[in-house]
Amino acid sequence: MDVPEGLRYTDDHEWLRIEGDTGTVGITAYAAEQLGDIVFVELPEPGTALSEGKTFGVVESVKAVSDLFAPVGGEVSELNLALQAHPELVNSDPYGEGWMIRLRLADAGQAEGLKDAAAYRELIKAG
Amino acid sequence: MLRTSLYERHQAAGARLIEFSGWEMPVQYTGILEEHRAVRERAGLFDLSHMGELWLGGPQAGAALAYALVSDPPRLAVGRAHYSMICAPDGGLLDDLIVYRVADERFLVVPNAGNREVVAAAVAERLAGFDAELDDASLRTALVAIQGPRALGILAPLTDVDLESLRYYAIAAGTAAGVPAHVARTGYTGEDGFELFVAWDDAPRVWDRLLEAGRDEGLVPVGLGARDTLRLEAGMPLYGNELDRATNPFEAGLGRVVKLDKAGDFVGRDALERVAAAGPGRLLGGLIVRGRGIARHGYPVYAPAGEGSASGVVTSGTVSPTLGVPIAMAYLPPPQVVADTMVEVGVRDARVAAEVVDLPFYSRRR
């Protein structure tokens, strides 16, 4: 299962890529595979303030509805609008074109509390 | 948890297995959308061995079933089948069923896996006083279904049953893949197809031979996930979603199956006659969501749109793989179950516009 180095991971299977004071968030390849064919993604409006661990949206597969949780706090600066028409990008390219939101980070230090790739690999191996 | 005789096949194929009605069953092999499309465009193979098989035999087997069920099985010609239901005395549904008349004095009743024991017990009790016997063959009978436009072409060379002349909702005894089988032209997908009742231990051979024979035709194994989206598009109810103990057949839009004109009493007659006379208090309808969101089981429905409080509830919903839009079935006030009526579905914090449409959502071209 693809778990890229350099990203941070939550126990709820979101990933976070930090570039300066911006964080990009999506769900992992493992989560996308577990959900199955993704058919709908609901995301917050730009400007929404998120706190760490707060629900920021919903991802739906053919069968199931799952909440999305903010890995860190911040203000939503951008959405991946392509997911409206093409939610399947989350399955086909979860760390690339399937990204979900960008955050203006409240405190980049919060990311220190998240898992690195090795720790996340252990998590999904344990099932 | 129970396992079918095809469990090792599912494991070897890399299926994702889930608990379903006490059975460990494949929910998907490669993906629900891909499997769904395979059935609509080519053919799919299903393990339905978890479903029940109850045999009723004896001179009064038909009469006993006419008393136990809402339909009139003695009216079936030998070799034909019909959709039926079994109700409690208050008219509430214990299960929906297919009844096959295999011989003059021999019927096969197929209940859902989760209701097998309830149905077997109710039928056994209702047989009292009739010259008929019940044999619950569920755990020694496997059921393999092949469904889709190419099902006939794939199965025909492997069976001595004349599939071309086997009518929809008909059954014949013969062989399939070299083993004894009852071959029925029934299904739960909205496509043409066949269901093969075979001995428990013969199922792996039937499964392997069919997959091999259908490989070039694009036959793939299909799990319960796509089975659910296929039946929903076809407007077919699922016990536990559209149907349950607190629902009567008229509410589910299945009043035509209840034969109030049949001779003799049957369990639930009084209650169902009252519903038929008064009309159901709620009615199952189809919805296409026009706003952004997916209507799911249990979501409230505001009908008509703008209604202050919820007046209906979604029973099943997903994105239709064939139509590409969110579809749902929902219980609504009967006056609202009219095509083109606009309603709203409560999706989390929002109200999302939806349109009432006639069922089914999908019908195959014939």
- The largest beta-sheet of chain B arranges its strands as 10-11-12-9-3-13
Largest sheet features of chain B: 6 strands, mixed
Uncertain spans of chain B: none
- Record the strand order, biggest sheet of chain A: 1-2-3-9-8-5
The number of distinct β-strands of chain B equals 19
Provide the gyration radius of chain B in Å: 21 Å
Count up the helices of chain B: 8
Oligomer, anyone? heterodimer
What does this structure look like?
The complex is a heterodimer of chains A (127) and B (366). Chain A is α+β, with helices and mostly antiparallel strands and 127 residues long. Chain A has helices at residues 29-35, 82-85, 89-92, 117-126, and strands at 8-9, 14-19, 22-27, 38-42, 49-50, 55-61, 65-69, 74-79, 101-105. In chain A, the strands form 2 sheets. Chain A has a 6-stranded antiparallel sheet with strand order 1-2-3-9-8-5. Chain A has a 3-stranded antiparallel sheet with strand order 4-6-7. The longest helix of chain A has 10 residues, at 117-126. Chain A starts with 7 loop residues before the first strand and ends with a helix. Chain B contains 8 helices and 19 strands. A 6-stranded mixed sheet of chain B has the order 10-11-12-9-3-13, sandwiched between helices. In chain B, helix 2 (32-41) crosses helix 7 (224-233). Chain B is globular. The two termini of chain B are 40 Å apart. Classes of the chains: A alpha+beta (127), B alpha+beta (366).
Short description:
The complex is a heterodimer of chains A (127) and B (366). With 127 residues, chain A is α+β, with helices and mostly antiparallel strands. Chain A is 20% helix and 35% strand.
Index terms:
heterodimer; A: 127 residues; alpha+beta; 6-stranded antiparallel beta sheet; 3-stranded antiparallel beta sheet; 4 helices; 9 strands; 35% strand; B: 366 residues; 6-stranded antiparallel beta barrel; globular
Write the layout of secondary structure elements.
The complex is a heterodimer of chains A (127) and B (366).
Chain A: E1 8-9, E2 14-19, E3 22-27, H1 29-35, E4 38-42, E5 49-50, E6 55-61, E7 65-69, E8 74-79, H2 82-85, H3 89-92, E9 101-105, H4 117-126
Antiparallel strand pairs in A: 1-2, 2-3, 3-9, 4-6, 5-8, 6-7, 8-9
Chain B: H1 7-12, E1 16-20, E2 23-28, H2 32-41, E3 43-47, E4 54-57, H3 61-68, E5 81-87, E6 93-103, E7 106-110, H4 116-126, E8 133-136, E9 141-147, H5 151-155, E10 171-176, E11 179-184, E12 193-199, H6 203-214, E13 219-221, H7 224-233, H8 269-278, E14 283-289, E15 300-302, E16 312-319, E17 326-332, E18 342-347, E19 350-357
Parallel strand pairs in B: 3-13
Antiparallel strand pairs in B: 1-2, 3-9, 4-7, 4-8, 5-6, 6-7, 9-12, 10-11, 11-12, 14-17, 14-19, 15-16, 15-18, 16-17, 18-19
Helix pairs in contact in B: 2-7
